[in-house]
């Protein structure tokens, strides 16, 4: 199997996310554009995986399975982007540095291959986070 790497995480907004959000956060379009982590191709290679492989992103606050894709914008090695929303919220640290806003950017994460793991949908993640998910695993 591949390796684990540590990178700095930045959550961000994207045009694709905004367009998909208009269709709904449980839509296939939203799932497709938001359940990803954008990475530098060198970091994907360091993981020992191919593009579009599922990975586990883990922070001090939790973890989430997302698909690793090559960044479509500038992303140097050691930095990764995950779009703000349901998947990002699983790993965003709650600390606010007295601002009242969680630390959406600039926090360390570990990324490791998880090709056999399933990327969960938005509803499953939200309901699962509070113990209300009753659907299939």
From TrEMBL:
Q: Which GO terms describe its molecular function?
A: molybdopterin cofactor binding; oxidoreductase activity
Q: Which residues form the Molybdopterin dinucleotide-binding domain?
A: 9-106
Which InterPro entries does this UniProt record tie to the protein? Asp_de-COase-like_dom_sf, Formylmethanofuran_DH_dsu, MoPterin_dinucl-bd_dom
Q: Which residues form a coiled coil?
A: none
Q: What is this protein called?
A: Molydopterin dinucleotide-binding region
Source organism of this protein record: Methanosphaerula palustris (strain ATCC BAA-1556 / DSM 19958 / E1-9c)
């Amino acid at each position: 199997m591949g390796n684990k790497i540590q990178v700095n995480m930045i959550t961000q907004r994207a045009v694709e996310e905004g367009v998909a959000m208009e269709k709904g956060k449980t839509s296939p379009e939203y799932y497709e554009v938001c359940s990803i982590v954008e990475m530098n191709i060198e970091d994907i290679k360091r993981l020992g995986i191919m593009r579009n492989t599922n990975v586990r992103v883990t922070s001090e606050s939790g973890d989430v399975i997302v698909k690793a894709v090559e960044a479509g914008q500038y992303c140097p090695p050691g930095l990764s982007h995950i779009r703000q929303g349901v998947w990002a919220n699983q790993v965003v640290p709650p600390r606010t540095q007295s601002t009242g806003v969680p630390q959406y950017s600039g926090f360390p994460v570990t990324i490791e291959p998880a090709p056999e793991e399933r990327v969960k949908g938005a509803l499953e993640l939200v309901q699962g986070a509070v113990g209300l998910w009753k659907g299939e695993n």
